[in-house]
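REQUEST FORM: STRUCTURE PREDICTION
Request ID: SP-0412
Submitted by: Lab K.M.
Chain count: 1
Length (residues): 40
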Amino acid sequence: MPSLGQIIIEQTTPAGEDVEPDDVTRAEQGIEKSNRTRLY
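STATUS: Completed
RESULT:
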């Protein structure tokens, strides 16, 4: 099952362009930081 970061990047990448692993990593890091620092 793909990670949430990968799903977000795949959905926002223009058609015909490849998903960059660095973009997925940055998205995952942003999600983790948000989960640690924001209240629900």
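NOTES: The two ends are 25 Å apart (CA to CA).
Reviewed by: T.R.
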